[in-house]
Every structure is written in structure tokens, then in C-alpha cells.
Amino acid sequence: MLIPLLTVRDIPEAVAFYTRVLDFELASVMPEEAPFYAVLTRGGDEMHLNLTPGEGRFGHCSAIVLCDHVDALFASFLARGLPVPGRAGSPVHEAPLDQTWGTREFYVDDPSGNTLVFQQRR
Hints:
By secondary structure, this protein is of the alpha/beta class. It is 16% helix and 36% strand. The chain has helices spanning 11-20, 70-79, and strands at 5-8, 25-30, 37-42, 45-51, 62-66, 97-98, 103-109, 115-121. The strands form 2 sheets. The chain has a 4-stranded mixed beta sheet with strand order 1-4-3-2, with helices on one face. Strands 5-8-7-6 form a 4-stranded mixed beta sheet, with no helix packed on it. The chain is globular, with a radius of gyration of 14 Å.
């Protein structure tokens, strides 16, 4: 099993985004009073978040989340407040897209700048 570790600028901010918008559940934070580490789950998968303060030190990670029904998932994230960045040159950030390599996917950037690829394989 591989567990992605994403570096973030603020643990409470990241946990709120992942749990309220992207269907993750909080398994634990360490320590509770001033967290610098969090464990999230989604289905049978795990993802860890590590506080890495200092400009330029966080937000350089990415992970692929395999899923079914990527269009419905995207719609549910929008309903929960997912901001669509309208990033020039990256339509895959704006809506699910069929890729030439045989997947349908969309990208989500977290508040620290890490990218999650929600991917439906065909």
C-alpha cells in the first residue's frame, strides 16, 4: 500500500477543505491543540497531511484518486463549494475531460496548491 503525503500551509484549513468539499474523513490529527499532521481516509484509502510552513515549501504534491462516475463526483463537489479556478490552459481544472490516454478526469487544487486528480478509468 502507498500512502500519499501532501505538504500544506495550514492543517485546519486543509482538513476543512478535504472533509467538507472532497468527501474525505478525518481519522486523526496530531496533536489536537496545534496540529502539524493529519490522517484522512476516503473509502479504503488513506492520505496524510503534513504542516510545512514557509512560502514555497508547501503545495508541490499531487495524488491520483481513482473513482467511478467522475461527472457526478465533480457535480457533488461543486454543490459543496468547490471553487473552479478557470485556469487558462487547463480545462481539466474546470470540468471532467476525456484524456487521450483513456481516462476521464478532473483536477482539484487544495488551498495549499497541491493537486488531486480524480480519475475514472475506462
